[in-house]
Amino acid sequence: VVDRRAIQLPARAARPARQAHLELRFGAIELARPQSKFLRHLPKSLPLAVVDVCEINAGPGAEPLHWRLITSHEIATVDDAWRIVEWYKQRWIIEQFFRVLKTQGLKLEDSQIGTADRLLKLVAIAAKAAVITIQLLQARDGGQQPIRVAFNDNEINALAALNRQLEARSKRLKNPHPPDSLTWAAWIIGRLGGW
């Protein structure tokens, strides 16, 4: 064991957010070239680094975390190894982005656009929408981002007008969030969707 640290694990579908106490090990490895005669032109081996983190004392009912991460990045220090762990933690956001983009939200793969140029434009627009959708989900789940990370002045003004209409429909349901927060926008958009 080279180092120990606690990290915050975000909530997932089957797991609530929690703090994980981890033990870290890291080192260098070499991956040998396959023995196929068709690959002899490749180097005999590939130098890589491995980072191994194991959770200690996961708690009752929690499956202990154990990640073995192989990377081409040089790892010379403990901080280098923890950086790889932090990058790996971000994969959940990346996976969520592609889920929203491709299957569970914008269904980009169902597009019938025939040219690469038009498809590229659609992907650019859809990617922005997917990022905003994820930011709104994070805000709903307790994130504290400012509204301007996702919306411009005209969009904020439109949200304010919608908020006034939504609040006028019910005396009991008032937007409890500060107007400069993304959570405020998430509340409005959620109400539009029937929440």
Automatic annotation (TrEMBL):
Provide the GO MF annotations for this entry.
Answer: DNA binding; transposase activity
A GO BP annotation? DNA transposition
Boundaries of every Transposase IS4-like domain copy: 77-126
Which superkingdom? Bacteria
| InterPro entries linked | RNaseH-like_sf (IPR012337), Tn5p-like (IPR047768), Transposase_11 (IPR002559), Transposase_Tn5-like_C (IPR014737)
Give the protein's recorded name: Transposase IS4-like domain-containing protein
Q: Which organism is it from?
A: Bradyrhizobium elkanii
